[in-house]
Write a structure and sequence with these properties.
single chain; about 525 residues; mainly alpha; two-stranded antiparallel ribbon; 4 strands; about 5% strand; disordered N terminus
Length: about 525
């Protein structure tokens, strides 16, 4: 048990994952892992299958760039008495100095034949409705995290995953046939709830089957398909040309993931936690045979399970979010961490949309910027077990913030594209690191609450990010200034936080309150 507690916890993709790792007590976790192995052919097949879920996750979360790309337009109604109306103007001169609001529009369709902008005239006074789509999507993901977290605890991991995949596909396809904006928004929201569910359950299931020494690298590698999905998004849009076909193209592939019903097993940990030992035994036996693990390991895990369940019940104490702020040191650390979560969410999703508004080819801009996420992920994967968490987090934030602020000074389209892409690479470094750091800094008794609040802060940032990304129409320098300043603030707040690498994880509220103080005392002595 002490060996487990002293190991670094993994980076997570969604809220509530730490609950999966800490909820079931420590001894049965070791025995269950011994029964099915740490990492073998059985794990690899499941890990690869679950990682494919991240493709539609990326497509749906980042689709707004190509559903509502920047579109030039002119006014055709009412007719202007002058020699045509100016592009991107919402009022025309109808004679005698009278300006009237445009009611009919002509769009430049040389790049995109149809978008939701041209479909429902989302320009002028309706311009912000495109941002509402993305904000609604991110809010739906947040709702999906909460909803499917509760569902996964009640009915298992496998069934909610199947429900989320099916719902994501069905509502995604239906939204492509929406005849009204409101109907499109409704089905995009439902699809986003399902997307949040697939993110949650697939990662929970993966973390419950791999060995503890594999959780950190697997949690980072699990994010790679999301990056590849981001990279392929411009290709899908380029091949489809219309928003309806694009929406269909990103929704249909998930239908094939329904085959997971026969490929992905239920979590044996969950089955044992609720007393369904017979079903867990079947899965553990299959895993043991596939990974060449002695079958007596399975019997040992099952025999010790009931007594350990009694121990967990007697040690069960309820804690809530307020415990994160009751003591001074915990309060300071929590605030600094949550602000970092907020800026990470704001910057990553805001930049992903902002890349579509930079001068140049929209397909190349998005592809280049998303491709630079891969080096960021590789850096995290290679350094996370060797270098200070705070140094990595500060470095990612500082790299992102500085590169974005430099785009204001360097007035060259190619240079601005490169700098903004480096900004995304910086968030690809800081985002997974804040996940890992949060899982190590919060005490065990409130770790789930801390990660949950942090995830909510990131989602709140992603909800307002579209509005920041599109204020470039007011002043081109505003988005990079806002995003860059936020990242630099996050880097500065890291100076107030203690390092967690190679430290014993805090378990109680008292441990969490003394954690930074102890490190500070040791460092000054």
């Amino acid at each position: 048990m002490q060996r487990i507690l002293r190991r670094p916890c993994s980076k997570i993709e969604i809220s509530f994952v730490i609950e999966v790792i800490t909820r079931h007590d420590h001894v049965p976790l070791d025995l269950i892992q011994d029964a099915m192995g740490v990492m073998g052919p059985w794990h690899i097949v499941i890990a690869i299958a679950l990682s494919l879920v991240k493709f539609p996750v990326a497509w749906h979360q980042l689709s707004i760039v190509f559903l509502a790309p920047p579109t030039n337009f002119s006014c055709i109604s009412p007719e202007s008495s002058t020699n045509g109306s100016m592009i991107m103007k919402c009022y025309v001169d109808t004679g005698n100095g009278t300006m009237e609001k445009c009611t009919g529009f002509k769009y430049d369709k040389r790049i995109f034949r149809e978008s939701i902008i041209t479909e429902w005239d989302l320009v002028c006074d309706k311009e912000q409705l495109t941002n509402v789509v993305q904000s609604c999507t991110m809010f739906g993901v947040l709702v999906g995290n909460f909803l499917f977290s509760s569902m996964a605890d009640r009915i298992g991991r496998k069934k909610p995953l199947m429900i989320a995949i099916a719902l994501q596909s069905i509502t995604g396809v239906i939204s492509a046939y929406a005849v009204w904006y409101e109907l499109f928004l409704l089905f995009k929201f439902i699809s986003a709830i399902a997307t949040g569910g697939t993110m949650l359950v697939s990662f929970v299931l993966l973390m419950e089957i791999v060995g503890i020494e594999w959780r950190s690298p697997m949690s980072v590698l699990f994010h790679v398909p999301f990056i590849i999905g981001h990279i392929t998004t411009p290709l899908v849009s380029y091949l489809t040309h219309t928003w309806q076909k694009f929406q269909m193209a990103i929704s249909i592939p998930a239908i094939f993931l329904l085959s997971y019903y026969w490929i992905i097993p239920e979590s044996p940990r969950w089955l044992l936690a609720i007393g369904r030992s017979a079903e867990a035994e079947i899965i553990l036996m299959k895993a043991a045979r596939r990974n060449k693990i002695p079958l007596e390991n399975v019997n040992r895990a099952l025999e010790s399970h009931e007594s350990q369940r009694l121990i967990r019940k007697t040690n069960n104490t309820n804690y809530n979010v307020t415990h994160l702020f009751k003591t001074p040191n915990m309060r300071l650390k929590s605030i600094c961490i949550f602000i970092n979560w907020f800026f990470c969410g704001t910057c990553f999703f805001g930049l992903a949309q902002y890349m579509g508004h930079i001068d140049g080819n929209i397909f190349i801009n998005v592809a280049v910027s998303s491709a630079l996420e891969l080096p960021g992920t590789i850096i995290v994967l290679s350094l996370i077990s060797r270098v200070s968490r705070l140094k990595i987090l500060m470095g990612g934030n500082f790299l992102s913030g500085l590169s974005l602020l430099l785009t204001i000074i360097i007035n060259h389209p190619t240079a601005q594209l490169c700098l903004a892409s480096i900004g995304i690479a910086g968030t690809a470094i800081s985002f997974p690191t804040i996940y890992l750091y949060s899982s190590e800094i919060f005490p065990t008794v409130v770790r789930n609450n801390g990660i949950g609040v942090g995830s909510v802060c990131a989602r709140l940032g992603s909800i307002i990010a579209p509005y920041i990304a599109t204020v470039n129409k007011i002043q081109p320098w505003l988005p990079p200034v806002i995003f860059g300043t936020g990242q630099l603030i996050g880097a500065g707040l890291c100076l107030l936080l203690p390092e967690t690498m190679n430290c014993e994880l805090p378990e109680t509220i008292e441990d969490g309150e003394n954690f930074g103080k102890k490190i500070s005392t040791q460092s000054t002595s």
